[in-house]
Design brief:
CATH superfamily: TonB-dependent receptor, beta-barrel domain
Strand content: over 45%
Shape: globular
CATH class: Mainly Beta
Radius of gyration: 24 Å
CATH topology: Maltoporin, Chain A
Helix content: under 10%
Length: 628
Amino acid sequence: MKQLKIVLLLILVLVTITLGGTAKQDSLKTYTLPTVYVIVEKPSEAIGSLHIIEGEDVKNALSLREAMQNSVGISATIGTKDESNLRLRGFRKNEIKVMVDGKPLNNGYFGNVDISKLSLLDIEEIQILKGPASPLYGTNNMGGVVNIITKAPPNNYWLEVNTLFKRNNTNEITLSSAHSFDTWNYRIGVSQEKTDGFVLSEKFIPTPYEDGGVRNNSDKCLYNISGSLDKEFLNFHNLGVDFGYNKMDKKNIPSSIYEQRYRQYQDWMRYHIGLWTKMQVSESGTLNLQLINDGSTDRYLEYKDPAYENLTLDSKMHNAGFGFHSRFTKTFTGNKKLDIGYNYDFQGNNRKDNDSYQQWTDSVVHIHQAFSQLECTIIPKLLLTTGIGVNTRINRDNNKIQPQLEPAVGIVYEIIPDSETSFAIGRNTSHPTMRQLYSASKGNPDLKPQNSLKLEINHNQALWQNKISLSFSVYFNDTKDLIDLYNGHYENIYKVQSQGTEIGVSFSPDKFFQTSVNYAYLSYRKISDYYLTETPKNSVELCQQFTFPYKIGFRINSSYRDRCLSQDDDGRYHTLAPYWKHDLILTIPWKRLKLFLGVENVLDEDYQSEYGYPEPGRNFSLGLQAII
C-alpha cells in the first residue's frame, strides 16, 4: 500500500509539471511512422534521433546481430558464451534496452538480451536510439534502445515463404501467414535456422586450440515461432495478443582460439507473450495497456575433454519476467499532446549448480516507473518535447525506495527549407543486473543504478531537389557509477565522459544509382582506469546501389572498423587490428518472387570482433522469397 501511494503521488506531480501552455499546428507531424502499437510512434516522441534499419536491407542476415553489425556507432560481436555483445556508442549490452513492438524483452540473470538468437521473421524495421531516451521507453536504457517493429498484416496476400542458404550446410527456412480483415488481423510464422558451423578465412592461422577451416563448436539448430492477433470492437477499442518462442536442444559453445575449453548449452529456450489494449476513452483521450510475460531456461555445462564426457560444471537457470505498462494520451487544441503513465516490471531468477549453488536459489527485482511527457509547438516549425520519469528498484536484499529522476528535453526545428535540426538532452539510468546484485562470490545488493547525462545535436538537410541528403550528429555522454569488478566484488567505481560525431551523405542522381557514406568517430576521457572495449574510434560504412531494368537490384556494402581494445577472460587488454569488409548482394524480382544472391566478406578478410573470437571468412548466400 505504501508503494502504491508513492506511485500515485509521483504521477500527480508529473501531471502538474507538464500541463499548461498553448500550441499551434505542427507541420512536422507528416513523418509519422506506419501505424503499429508501440510505446514510441513518432520520431519526435523518442527525444533523441532514431536510426532505422529497413527489413528489406537485411535479407541476407540470419539474425538481428548480423543485421546490425555493419552500422556505424554500433558494435555487435559474439561473447565468451556465444552470446551477443551489443554496444551503442561504447555503452555495454546490459545497459541497452531491447524491445519488440514497444514491449521490453527479459534481459535475464546476466542483463543481456541475446540478439544473436533473435530471428528476423516478419521484421518490418529496426529502430535504434543511441542518444537520450524518452521516458516513454521506461527505464533501464542508459546505453540506448533497440525496438524491433514487426510487419503489419497485409490485405493483398496470405502466405510468405523465405529461404536462405550459406556455406557449410547453413540455412534458414521461414514460413509465415498473415492477413488483415475489416476489423481484425492475424500473423503467425515459424522458422528454422541450422548450421554445421561457419567457415573461417583461408588466411586464418590454426592455433593449438583451433583447427582452422570450420570454426570449432559453432554448429547449432534454432527453432522460432511467433504470432499476433488483434481485434477492433465498436470502433473505439482494440485488443491484441502476441507471442514468441525460441528453442535449441543442444548448442556447443566456441571458445577463444587461445584456450582449450569445452562448453555446451542444453535445453535452451526463450519465450514471450503479451496482451495489449488500446481504448478511445474520450474524444481526445486514448488509453494503452500492456501485460507482458516472458522467460527463459537453459542448462550450461563445462567439460574437461573434447568428447564432452568429463563434466566439471552443471548449471541450470530459469528466468521469468512480468510487466504491466500503462499510457494515457490526451490531445488538446493547438496540436498539443500529453502522455502520462506507470510501468511495473518484475524479474525473477532461479539457479542451481554443482558449485556455489548446491540448492535452488531465488533472486528477484521489482522496478517501478511513473512518467509524463508533453509535446507542443512553441513557435511555427519548432516542436518541443519534454518529459520526466521517476523510477525506483526494490531488491530481494534491499527494499529501500531510492527514486531516480530521468528528465529529457527534445527540440525539433526547421531552420531552412528541406531541413530539420534537433537538440536532445536527458538523463538515463540502468539498474544493476541480477548477477551483479546476487552472485554468490561477487554480488553486491547495495549497488546504485548507473546513470548518464546524454546530449545530442542532429541536423538533416536535403539538397538539389532532394537528390542529396546530409545528416550530422554530435553527442556528449557524462556517465557515472559504472559497475565493474573491484577487489573481487561488483562496485560502482567508474566514471567516463565520451563524445563523438556521426556524419552521413547520400546521393541519388537518378533511379538507376544511389550511393551513401556514413562515418562515426568516438573518443572518451578516462576519469578512472576504464576502457571502452570492442568499440573502434573510427568506423565507416559505404553503400552503392544500382537498379537495373525489371527492378533488378545490385548492392555493394563496404565497412571499415578501426583498431580497438578487447578484454580477455583474465581482464587483460589487447589491441585488435583494423579491417575492411566487403559484401555484395543481387536481388532479382519476378512477379511475387524475389531471388537473392550474395557474397559476404568478398576479400576473405581474417579479423576478430573480440579477442580470440574470429568472424566468418568468405561466404556465399542464396535466398528466395515467395508471396502467395
